[in-house]
């Protein structure tokens, strides 16, 4: 049972992490071309990418737009995923999966 709970936590954590990057990319005006949760055995339905087996997550965006940014916005975008995970940990400190014993 703990394996299923850890997998669900991994999916949620991956989504929150990528959401952090997504929000900051949008704040700095960088176009996001794909937000993908799962990259293995997927189905494309328009711009939506569905994957029944989630092993990874990523955001795709034009590198030209990102390279035009100064150093500070780049650092904020890069660190925003980890900061979202940290924020989630502090917002839900009694998560039974994080504190499983």
UniProtKB/TrEMBL annotation:
Cofactor: Zn(2+)
Pfam family, one: Peptidase_M50
InterPro entries, per database record: Peptidase_M50 (IPR008915)
Peptidase M50 domain residues: 11-90
Hydrolase recorded as keyword: no
Keyword Transmembrane (UniProt): yes
Superkingdom of the organism of origin: Bacteria
Predominant location category: membrane
Subcellular locations according to the entry: Membrane
Residues spanning the membrane: 6-28, 40-59, 71-92
Key words of the record: Membrane, Transmembrane, Transmembrane helix
Record membrane topology: Multi-pass membrane protein
Family assignment from sequence similarity: Belongs to the peptidase M50B family.
Protein's UniProt name: Peptidase M50 domain-containing protein
